[in-house]
């Protein structure tokens, strides 16, 4: 007879660890109150009736009863979520006001990290941790923590608790008041609170848009920059740097290209003597050759011997093949004299005319000149031979030199291009300055949390 072999019984599964949540009943309403951080919790506010209970008493002695219905925070007590690498549990919630605006503060707990605060200003969230050391002096009336300088923001102001629920490690109640002073740097705020003989320092780091909402599963806030937080970095700062770098590169490129393409070439010139108050004179400059494509043509006149007179110049650049013409005109003039303030002179004896986008081809430039005396002049200065302006036989004439150049660029085009290039950096600069002005402005109750602002 064979003996039956009995296999050993499988080991029993390990017992689950005891829950850290201690449920008790509220002495006021009988509802279940869960104490999540036993041992350090001092106050518990009943989630059902709002009564303030003494957590240090074995039976949760009622400290104060609530007379109104209890509101529910947007993030439920007991919610857990990771923020900045640490999983936090919401154990308490309170609302505070400075008489101008109100905000919410969630008390967070992690058994290894301790307590933290999730501050909700109705628009964005900030994660706050109590400092374990005092800030140092830094900058003008500012403070420094971990080599980061903070500037004072506004003046000290009173803060009061208007609503509270959950459990806290200090005895908090509606009506509790402290005196707060803020120091800011883009992205972070230092909040100093004085109250009940104690001073605490809290560092508040601004969370990214949607970071807290995604973690706790609540609707995302609408981005707007109409009423930025005091420690909110400008969303236009990075754009501003980018815009000026790109704009600077574009401006340098514009000048380099303009310099390479802006050289002028002399292609024709001619001289003429024009009799003052005499008949018109026609000067023809033949075979003005322009390369294929469109060219810039500059026509300059030089009548530097003018004195108290002027010369009218009519230009007609005519295509030899098609007889199409481009017409323009200029005036060379110079006047001088004496008055009670001494000698004076004015006018430009070397006028220039610029023609743009002239098609390539062979042209004739027809110049019609007429010279005139200024009737206000009392006299003319004769030359050594007795003639005026070098004219012969007593005639008064003016020598004029006409030159034709091709190529070059229009200064107005460069200026227009520069303005177009700088438009974007200037717009972003004004956006940044406007944001900083709103950020540094005192926050008042008239600010509308629902303003849409500039979406990104």
Overall geometry comes to: rod-shaped
User: Using only CA atoms, what is the Rg?
Assistant: 43 Å
The number of domains is 2
Which structural category do the helix and sheet elements fall into? mainly beta
How confident overall, as mean pLDDT? 82
Terminus-to-terminus distance: 86 Å
Helix content: 10-25%
Tally of helical runs? 3
> What proportion of the residues form beta strands (DSSP E)?
over 45%
Low-confidence stretches: 1-7, 15-19, 378-393, 446-456
Biggest sheet layout: 8 strands, antiparallel, barrel
Please give the order of strands in the largest beta sheet: 7-8-9-10-16-15-14-13
What is the number of beta strands?
A: 23
Tags for this entry?
13% helix; 45% strand; 456 residues; disordered N terminus; mainly beta; Jelly Rolls; disordered C terminus; eight-stranded antiparallel barrel
Explain this structure to me?
The protein has 456 residues and is mainly β. It has two domains: 22-216, no CATH class; 263-373 and 394-408, Jelly Rolls (Sandwich). Helices cover 13% and strands 45% of the residues. It contains three helices and 23 strands. The chain has an eight-stranded antiparallel beta barrel. Strands 17-23-18-22-19-20-21 form a seven-stranded antiparallel sheet, with no helix packed on it. Helix 2 (237-261) runs antiparallel to helix 3. Mean pLDDT is 82; it is low at 1-7, 15-19, 378-393 and 446-456.
């Amino acid at each position: 007879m064979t003996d039956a072999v009995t296999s050993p019984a499988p080991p029993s599964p390990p017992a689950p660890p005891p829950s850290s949540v201690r449920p008790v009943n509220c002495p006021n309403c009988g509802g279940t109150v869960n104490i999540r951080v036993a041992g350090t919790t001092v106050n518990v506010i009943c989630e059902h009736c709002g009564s303030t209970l003494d957590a240090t008493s074995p039976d949760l002695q009622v400290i104060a009863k609530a007379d109104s219905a209890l509101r529910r925070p947007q993030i439920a007590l007991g919610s857990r979520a990771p923020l900045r690498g640490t999983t936090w549990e919401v154990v308490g919630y309170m609302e505070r006001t400075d008489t101008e605006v109100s905000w919410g503060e969630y008390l967070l707990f992690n058994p290894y990290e301790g307590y933290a605060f999730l501050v909700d200003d109705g628009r964005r969230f900030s994660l706050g941790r109590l400092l374990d050391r005092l800030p140092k002096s830094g900058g003008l009336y500012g403070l420094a923590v971990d080599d980061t300088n903070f500037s004072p923001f506004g003046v000290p102001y009173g803060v009061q608790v208007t609503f509270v629920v959950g459990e806290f490690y200090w005895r908090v109640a509606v009506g509790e008041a402290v005196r707060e002073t803020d120091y800011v740097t883009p992205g972070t705020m230092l909040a100093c609170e004085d109250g009940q003989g104690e001073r605490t320092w809290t560092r508040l780091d601004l969370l990214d848009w949607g970071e807290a909402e995604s973690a706790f599963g609540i609707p995302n806030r609408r981005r707007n920059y109409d009423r930025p937080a005091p420690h909110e970095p400008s969303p236009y700062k990075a754009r501003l740097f980018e815009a000026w770098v790109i704009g600077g590169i574009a401006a340098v490129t514009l000048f380099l290209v303009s310099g390479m393409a802006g050289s002028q070439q002399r292609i024709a010139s001619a001289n003429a003597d024009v009799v003052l108050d005499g008949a018109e004179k026609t000067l023809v400059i033949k075979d003005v050759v322009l390369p294929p494509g469109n060219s810039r043509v500059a026509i300059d006149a030089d009548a530097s011997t003018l004195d108290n007179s002027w010369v009218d110049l009519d230009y007609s650049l005519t295509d030899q093949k098609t007889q199409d013409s481009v017409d323009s005109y200029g005036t060379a003039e110079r006047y001088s004299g004496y008055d009670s303030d001494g000698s004076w002179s004015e006018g430009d004896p070397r006028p220039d005319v610029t023609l743009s986008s002239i098609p390539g081809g062979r042209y004739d430039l027809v110049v019609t000149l007429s010279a005139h005396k200024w009737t206000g002049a009392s006299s003319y200065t004769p030359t050594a031979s007795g003639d005026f302006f070098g004219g012969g036989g007593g005639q008064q004439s003016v020598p004029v030199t006409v030159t034709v150049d091709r190529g070059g660029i229009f200064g107005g085009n460069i200026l227009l291009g520069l303005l177009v290039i700088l438009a974007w950096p200037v717009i972003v600069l004004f956006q940044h300055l406007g944001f900083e002005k709103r950020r540094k402005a005192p926050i008042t109750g008239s600010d509308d949390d629902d303003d849409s602002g500039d979406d990104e």
